[in-house]
UniProtKB/TrEMBL annotation:
<keyword id="KW-0653">Protein transport</keyword>
<dbReference type="InterPro" id="IPR026593">
    <property type="entry name" value="SecY"/>
</dbReference>
<feature type="transmembrane region" description="Helical">
    <location>
        <begin position="316"/>
        <end position="335"/>
    </location>
</feature>
<comment type="subunit">
    <text>Component of the Sec protein translocase complex. Heterotrimer consisting of SecY, SecE and SecG subunits. The heterotrimers can form oligomers, although 1 heterotrimer is thought to be able to translocate proteins. Interacts with the ribosome. Interacts with SecDF, and other proteins may be involved. Interacts with SecA.</text>
</comment>
<dbReference type="InterPro" id="IPR030659">
    <property type="entry name" value="SecY_CS"/>
</dbReference>
<feature type="transmembrane region" description="Helical">
    <location>
        <begin position="224"/>
        <end position="245"/>
    </location>
</feature>
<feature type="transmembrane region" description="Helical">
    <location>
        <begin position="148"/>
        <end position="174"/>
    </location>
</feature>
<feature type="transmembrane region" description="Helical">
    <location>
        <begin position="21"/>
        <end position="39"/>
    </location>
</feature>
<dbReference type="InterPro" id="IPR002208">
    <property type="entry name" value="SecY/SEC61-alpha"/>
</dbReference>
<comment type="similarity">
    <text>Belongs to the SecY/SEC61-alpha family.</text>
</comment>
<keyword id="KW-0813">Transport</keyword>
<comment type="function">
    <text>The central subunit of the protein translocation channel SecYEG. Consists of two halves formed by TMs 1-5 and 6-10. These two domains form a lateral gate at the front which open onto the bilayer between TMs 2 and 7, and are clamped together by SecE at the back. The channel is closed by both a pore ring composed of hydrophobic SecY resides and a short helix (helix 2A) on the extracellular side of the membrane which forms a plug. The plug probably moves laterally to allow the channel to open. The ring and the pore may move independently.</text>
</comment>
<protein>
    <recommendedName>
        <fullName>Protein translocase subunit SecY</fullName>
    </recommendedName>
</protein>
<feature type="transmembrane region" description="Helical">
    <location>
        <begin position="275"/>
        <end position="296"/>
    </location>
</feature>
<keyword id="KW-1003">Cell membrane</keyword>
<dbReference type="InterPro" id="IPR023201">
    <property type="entry name" value="SecY_dom_sf"/>
</dbReference>
<feature type="transmembrane region" description="Helical">
    <location>
        <begin position="398"/>
        <end position="417"/>
    </location>
</feature>
């Protein structure tokens, strides 16, 4: 505990890091405030039917979790950041087949900026498709009373579409500002904050269902304690998945120090390859795609089975998508060929493996072998909510019981903490360098 307090004091002493954290908290607070504002023309006191629809489980409940409850409030941020996630998926998938995007991916910073701009425009296009779907749904599909709409007809539809689009663009802007000026990945943080916002209500609902007189047969406090213990075990397993690495031994034959080539034969280092190198992105990608059956079910009744997030069909497809995206995202984010070339230039090699092409093939082989069990573990954790529901856990609480919500929260929390730690370590390193320089000056005198 004392170490934690000391770390907080160290963070507060670093002006740049303190400002980044305060900026991040402020932008997140703005996002959460906007999520409470209902669309103009809707009476927020008449949204009980919409809330009941999202509390009943299924993809609507999951979408409501990802938007931090904004979906059930008919908020100006009802679509949240999900159109941006969908656009990112489309752009990355197109990057495999479209030569222009492949060229941009190789153009460094300038190419990255152009890809970001393409993603932004595609986000607007997707929002203009999802927005009318949401507006029509709240008007016709959720059983809202006529008095819930203070303004009707075309005026409500057009104004709501413009506001929903502006809300998504604003959420995208907030996420990018957090990434550039704050701490952590802004888009992932906004999703995580939306998930955490639903956590207290979900736990209280589970607690009430197990401890009240009507739920006395459910096991009471003892059942809650068992659920909490198992939940912490799942958190530990999730942390292990996120942090596990496979170390590839590397030996350096020579290094250049101050312009002189020094033989350092026997000097060893490691290349850490993460068991889950793709992080939370496969889950986010897979979840975004699993929202499609919700929009297409009326036109294609065969997709009705995929609307039940606790159903067998949904979880099989969901798990397969996570496995596929794990390999896909790992392949595009970890360039083994470039790693092999950089290793060769620095005079390093994997013992028993020739530098260059053979090293790249070795790294690719090891990465493929560890990605497979990592993706299976990730998929297993993601379908846990559907399993615990069968043991009497409430749907809203089950969404945090493993599954997408927990993995995203743990992954984003670890990434953010690691970024904060890197600031602390860099500050400590700079201080040592200054001390060393000062001592050298003193000794020279």
């Amino acid at each position: 505990m004392m170490n934690f307090i000391k770390t907080l004091k160290d963070i507060w002493k670093i002006e740049e890091l303190k400002n980044k954290i305060l900026l991040t908290i402020g932008l997140i607070a703005v996002y959460r405030f906007m999520a409470q504002i209902p669309l103009p023309g809707i009476d927020p006191t008449q949204l009980t039917a919409l809330k009941n629809s999202t509390d009943g489980g299924g993809l609507l409940a999951l979408l409501n979790v990802f938007t931090g409850g904004a979906f059930a409030r008919a908020s100006v941020m009802a679509l949240g950041i999900m159109p941006y996630i969908s656009a990112s998926i489309v752009v990355q998938l197109m990057g495999i087949a479209v030569p222009y995007l492949q060229k941009l991916q190789k153009d460094g910073e300038s190419g990255r900026k152009k890809i970001t701009q393409i993603t932004r425009w595609l986000t607007i296009a997707i929002t203009l498709v999802q927005g009318p779907t949401y507006i029509i749904a709240i008007q016709n599909s959720f059983g809202l009373p006529p008095e819930a709409f203070l303004v009707g007809g075309t005026t409500f539809t057009i104004s709501s579409l413009i506001i929903l689009t502006a809300g998504t663009i604003f959420a995208m802007w907030l996420g990018e500002r957090i990434t550039d000026k704050g701490v952590g990945n802004g888009i992932s943080l906004l999703i995580t904050v939306g998930i955490i916002a639903n956590f207290p209500a979900a736990f209280i609902q589970e607690l009430v269902s197990k401890t009240t007189a009507s739920g006395a047969g459910a096991g009471g406090i003892m059942t809650i304690l068992i659920e909490i213990i198992v939940w912490f075990v799942i958190i530990l397993l999730t942390v292990l998945l996120v942090t596990a690495v496979r170390k590839i031994a590397v030996q350096y034959a020579r290094r250049t120090v101050a312009g002189n080539i020094q033989n350092v034969a026997g000097s060893r280092d490691y290349i850490p390859l993460k068991l889950n190198a793709a992080g939370v992105m496969p889950i986010i990608f897979a979840q975004a795609i699993m929202f499609l059956p919700l929009a297409l079910a009326k036109r294609f009744p065969v997709l009705n089975d995929l609307q039940d997030i606790n159903g067998l069909s949904y979880n099989i497809v969901f798990a397969l998508l996570i496995i596929i995206f794990s390999f896909f995202y790992t392949a595009i984010t970890i360039p083994t060929n470039k790693m092999a070339e950089d290793l060769k230039r620095s005079g390093g090699f994997i013992p028993g493996i020739r530098p260059g092409k053979d090293t790249a093939e070795r790294l690719d082989s090891v990465l493929s072998r560890i990605t497979f069990p990592g993706s299976l573990f990730l998929a297993a954790l993601s379908v846990l909510p559907a399993i615990v529901v069968q043991f009497g856990v409430q749907q809203n609480w089950a969404l945090f019981y493993g599954g997408t919500s927990l993995i995203i929260m743990v992954g984003v929390a670890i990434d953010t903490i690691q970024q904060v730690n890197s600031y602390l370590l860099n500050r400590h390193y700079d201080g040592l360098m200054k001390t060393g320089s000062n001592s050298n000056r003193k000794s020279s005198k």
